[in-house]
Design brief:
By secondary structure, the protein is α/β, with parallel strands linked by helices. It is built from 6 helices and 7 strands. The protein has one domain: Rossmann fold, CATH 3.40.50. The chain is elongated. It starts with 8 loop residues before the first strand and ends in a 15-residue tail after the last helix.
């Protein structure tokens, strides 16, 4: 089968508790995105505005787990993706959101809603529409199997490009030292 008749791989992306910087790095692939879309079809992604993931070959997920909705989205995403890639520090180790982990959740809620400047007699939100916060922020590998880890805060567009093109070529992704960032 030639490259032009080879079926496109389906790729999905999502973001959990993080800053969306990894998705911005994905856009830093720049004009190579046009080459990429000749070989892949996007499912759930900010590029498509599809909200629910269908069966996919590759899933890229950024962000850690800070609430019950994050856990639900992660589990559904994992079920639908043959290969799951943890993208960035938040997905890999909780990143900046995990800096709240040493402080008990009730203490955080008390500080934010009852004692912070500017809030007078605030109430801690208790609405079924709001996802329940977890006691701590967790990396995604603590809840689901992750196939590959792409370090960085965020990883560069070149790093994302290298991993995706290796997978498209049927190769195990290998990142050279200059593309590894643990910042």
């Amino acid at each position: 089968m030639s490259a032009s008749t080879k079926p496109k791989l389906k790729v999905a992306t999502t973001s959990l508790a993080g800053c969306f910087g990894c998705h911005m790095s994905f856009l830093d692939i720049d004009e190579r995105l046009f080459e990429l879309v000749e070989h892949i079809e996007f499912d759930r992604s900010p590029l498509t505005d599809i909200k629910h993931v269908g069966p996919c070959d590759i899933g890229l997920i950024e962000g850690g787990l800070c609430n019950a909705e994050n856990v639900h989205v992660l589990r559904e995403f994992r079920r639908q993706c043959k290969v799951l890639i943890a993208v960035g520090a938040c997905a890999i180790n909780g990143g900046l959101p995990a800096q709240r982990n040493p402080i008990p959740l009730p203490m955080i809620l008390e500080e934010v809603y009852h004692t912070s400047p500017g809030l007078h007699n605030g109430l801690i939100p208790n609405d079924p529409e709001l996802p329940l916060p977890l006691n701590q922020v967790h990396p995604i590998h603590e809840v689901v199997k992750v196939d590959y880890f792409m370090p960085g805060c965020p990883p560069s567009g070149d790093t994302i490009w290298k991993v995706l093109t290796d997978l498209l070529a049927g190769k195990e992704p290998v990142l050279p030292h200059e593309l590894l960032h643990y910042d």
